[in-house]
Design goal:
The structure holds 2 protein chains of 2 kinds.
Chain A (H helix, E strand, L loop, with lengths): L2 H4 L7 E5 H12 L3 E4 L6 H10 L6 E4 L3 H14 L2 E7 H17 L4 E8 L13 H7 L3 E2 L4 H18 L3 E6 H4 L1 E6 L20 H4 L3 H24 L4 E3 L5 E6 L2 H11 L5 E5 L1 E3 L3 H8 L4 E5 L5 H13 L4 E3 L14 H12 L7 H11 L15 H12 L5 E3 L24 H12 L4 E6 H17 L5 E6 L28 H7 L4 E6 L3 H13 L4 E6 L3 H11 L6 E3 L9 H4 L6 E4 L2 E4 L10 H4 L5 E3 L5
Chain B lengths: L3 E8 L4 H14 L5 E6 L8 E8 L13 E6 L4 H4 L4 E10 L17 H11 L3 E4 L1 H8 L5 H12 L7 H11 L2 H19 L2
Parallel strand pairs in B: 1-4, 4-5, 5-6
Antiparallel strand pairs in B: 1-3, 2-3
Helix pairs in contact in B: 1-6, 4-5, 4-7, 5-7, 6-7
Classes of the chains: A alpha/beta, B alpha/beta.
């Protein structure tokens, strides 16, 4: 919303931003040299904002092909002595974890900030793994901001800390911090410095940065020492917010939950001391021990795992063994999904036998019967989406008698009815790797679907594996020339780089042939007859086949047409020819076609004019134009 | 509790987040120190439903509107307000557009529920339901995309007392849009105010 404000070079200005934009601005104020990422909700706007800001400020930004490579790019910069940041969603941490965990053993000579955005509540992710646990597991000092202002300040602090201890530092946000809007004060921009390292060829780099057991043993000790130093810093950090009042009740919390706690205490008219953790690893144990003195009942309010709770239970054994702790471990707070003020109010009221000022359950029960009228709005493939055509062709060509292995992207929306093209999808790259496994055991042909960006992200190793191990399946690479699901970021198939700079386009069919795939075809997704016959041929082919189904994303092409002033001429149904078979609705599932009495009708303002429906209509009842000509 | 909470509901492309942003800025301009906005977009671009929350007041510290806490629900689509009605406070305001957008589940069997039934359900939750044909007004202004600003104007006049001043709302509109789009959006905002001013 506010690139204009974020660009400002005048410190002290107030900007209206969400948490993601605040992190991007924080990186600029910290003097980042290189930022790399793979886009993914809820982190995407950090990357997209940096991509835009890279046009105005002196730093490099790249959309990397996947999170592991993005992390390697950032590690490379930081090992050489630069300031780097890598950004991804929770699942991205898993992909990058090999590099990240080992970068702790090597250490760095510059600064290295890892930004991970996780999703309690799974709004648009396939997991809600608590990344604070990763901080502990990997020995990454971990900042956990609660709001946009903290997100910016902690980003800057993370760069400082990383440079000080020569270790990577983690910044962990949750959706409600990423997409929380607030007002931040812009800080000073750093002095210009050259972003070049004079590589000292005489330095025995290998002793620290070539990871073999001999170099990793001292590396392990270095990482432990670094955490010991951070422990001291944590004890006095301004991000540990303690509010001690005259009360036997205490609350331990971190991140966005702090706000819910303050609201719950007010609603319940409860006096309690609060301890807000700003760095979740390592914990400020001495301060926490001091806080526990004199507290009889402690609430631990945190989304995700019982992370703070298990730590505080261990600490309390030494300093306050009689304390009563209410958390997830004794089922006072839920383990799953995101919290809000009502969750905290309900749990506190239950534990202390208080009356809740709002009867949340009653309100929900009253609303339920009224909401019976409300229908679901599941996300669907857009009007004119080339993926719909490709999925429909795959279903027709195999007469629905194939195993469909899906991957992560818009096309996974072909899995539910009416298309039913999708049986399995776990994570990025499933379509090639899992297909290799299925190939050993299932008795039906296997057809896999993967998008262009996902193909480069995680499809390549599985495809090589398939060629090498003589698997037999057909891979449809749905090349819509965009990373559609996360907001149209470019990828190698588009040949555009971050900051809209020109890159080199990587041709998918050349890659497939180079990998040893013998049966490679390129078909226009909208040419549904040719695509069906290509799929039939490839399924019959013994070995791995790749069909590149190429057609630009319908949203992008509609946007381009609008900008060029080119009108979209919609299709229409001839009511005299339509026999009401409903194939276009009940099997093809175009959202621009609706039932009007006994015949189908195309909603002309929604039609993106893909021209596929006339191809599939058995009565030849659909034609271009509004009928006026 | 010193707070005021506004929930904006609609579907992808209707400008839900945009209205949320304007409300945030306007609340701040109206002098609120604590203003927190929140949005979930997820897969809204693919036809899904989405919401934006704007919370203001000294007792506001978190981003989410809890069940039973929204003072106002603005529905940019006719049934979308009802989807979140459990969040409405006792006797809170509902300002809802007549605009009915179908969902992908509406194939050959399911159709959009009857207008009167939806309205009756909303009225059972609160007496203060206001429905406006914002689409028609936006058409008259000459740009269907300003329908959301019509709804904002209507909300600002019908919700009484409304803690955000009209001047702040207009200033926030000016801050949000590029120069060439300011006039038409201000016009839409005024038209929304006029449409419900006599109620």
């Amino acid at each position: 919303m506010s690139i204009g404000e974020l660009k400002s070079r005048l410190p002290g200005i107030e900007a209206h931003v969400h948490g993601n934009e605040a992190v991007a601005r924080g990186a600029i104020e910290a003097g980042v040299w290189v930022a790399s990422c793979y886009p993914g909700t809820p982190s995407s706007e950090i990357s997209d904002t940096l991509s835009e800001l890279s046009k105005y400020f002196d730093f490099e930004f790249e959309y990397s092909v996947n999170e592991k490579v993005a992390a390697e790019v950032a590690a490379g910069v930081a090992i050489a002595g630069g300031k780097s940041m890598v950004i991804f969603k929770g699942a991205g941490f898993f992909v990058a974890s090999d590099v990240l965990f080992h970068s702790v053993y090597s250490g760095i000579t510059g600064s290295f900030v890892i930004v991970v955005c996780e999703e309690p509540g799974l709004h648009s992710s396939a997991d809600e793994v608590d990344q604070r646990v990763m901080g502990r597991l990997g020995y990454f000092p971990t900042f956990v901001p609660a709001n946009p202002a903290e997100a910016k300040d902690m980003t800057i602090e993370a760069f400082k800390l990383s440079g000080q201890i020569k270790q990577p530092v983690l910044l962990r946000l949750t959706t409600r911090v990423c997409l929380q809007r607030g007002f931040i004060k812009l800080g000073k921009l750093p002095q210009k410095e050259p972003h070049t390292v004079k590589w000292d060829i005489k330095k025995p780099w290998w002793q620290q940065f070539v990871l073999v057991p001999e170099t990793c043993r001292p590396g392990r000790l270095r990482s432990i020492e670094a955490i010991d130093r951070v422990k001291e810093i944590c004890e006095t950090s301004k991000y540990t917010e303690v509010s001690k009042v005259q009360s036997n009740i205490g609350v331990l919390t971190c991140g966005v939950c702090h706000g819910y706690v303050l609201e719950a205490l007010k609603l319940l008219n409860l006096k309690a001391s609060t301890f807000k953790v700003g760095i979740s690893f390592p914990l400020p144990e001495q301060r926490l021990k001091g806080f526990l003195q004199g507290i009889k009942q402690l609430f631990v309010v945190e989304e995700g795992e019982a992370y703070l709770e298990l730590n505080v239970r261990a600490l309390a054994k030494d300093v306050n063994p009689d304390i009563q702790i209410f958390g997830k471990d004794n089922a006072y707070f839920p383990l799953a999904f995101e919290y809000d003020t009502s969750v905290v109010v309900k749990s506190m009221a239950k534990a202390l036998k208080l009356n809740s000022p709002i009867n949340y359950e009653k309100r929900e029960a009253e609303a339920k019967p009224l909401q019976k009228l409300v229908f679901p709005r599941p996300p669907v493939l857009c009007s004119g989406c080339p993926h719909r055509a490709s999925a429909y062709a795959a279903k027709k060509a195999t007469k629905g008698k194939a195993v469909f292995v899906q991957d992560v992207g818009c096309y996974a929306l072909a899995a539910p009815p009416p298309l039913n093209v999708g049986d399995i999808e776990l994570c990025m790259g499933t379509s090639t790797g899992v297909a290799c496994g299925l190939n050993y055991v299932v008795d039906k042909p296997i057809v896999s679907l993967i998008g262009d960006s996902t193909f480069f992200h995680a499809g390549l190793p599985g495809l090589v594996n398939a060629v090498y191990n003589r698997a037999n399946f057909t891979l449809l690479v749905l090349d819509n020339l965009a990373t559609g699901m996360t907001g149209f970021q470019p990828n190698p198939a588009t040949g555009i780089r971050g900051g809209d700079k020109p890159g080199k386009r990587v041709i998918i069919e050349d890659v497939a042939r180079g990998m040893g795939v013998e049966d490679v075809k390129v078909v226009d997704s909208y040419n549904i007859k040719e695509l069906q016959s290509a799929i039939k041929d490839s399924v019959a082919f013994e070995g791995v086949s790749v069909i590149i189904c190429r057609r630009e994303c319908a949203i992008l092409s509609a946007k381009e047409n609008r900008e060029k002033g080119q009108p979209i001429i919609p299709y229409r149904v001839d009511p005299n020819k339509c026999n009401g078979c409903w194939l276009c609705i009940s099997q093809f599932g175009c959202p621009s076609i609706e039932k009007e009495g006994e015949v189908a009708k195309i909603i002309s303002e929604n039609c993106n004019s893909c021209g596929v429906c006339p191809e599939i209509c058995p009565s030849k009842a659909i034609m271009k134009g509004n009928g006026d000509e | 509790m010193n707070k005021f909470e506004i929930l904006v509901a609609g579907t992808g492309g209707q400008g839900v987040i945009l209205i949320g942003n304007i409300l945030d800025r306007a609340a701040r301009l109206s002098g609120f120190k604590n203003v927190i906005g929140s949005e979930i977009h997820g897969m809204a671009q693919r036809g899904g439903a989405l919401t934006s929350y704007t919370r203001m007041g000294e007792d506001v510290h978190g981003p989410i509107i809890s069940v039973g806490c929204a003072d106002v629900i603005i529905g940019l689509e006719f049934i979308e307000g009802l989807r979140h009605i459990e969040r409405l406070s006792n006797n809170g305001w509902m300002v809802v557009a007549e605009t009915r957008l179908p969902s992908s589940v509406m194939g050959t069997d399911i159709s959009y529920p009857k207008r009167d039934e939806v309205l009756a359900a909303m009225k059972q939750a609160t007496e203060k339901v206001f429905v406006l044909n914002s689409q028609k007004i936006a058409h008259q202004i000459g740009n269907i995309r300003v329908e959301n600003l019509v709804m904002l104007g209507a909300t600002a006049v019908v919700v009484n007392p409304f803690p955000i001043t009209t001047e702040s709302l207009k200033e926030a509109i000016r801050m949000t849009f590029p120069d060439k789009l300011v006039d038409i959006n201000i016009k839409a905002f005024e038209a929304g105010r006029e449409a419900l001013a006599s109620i």
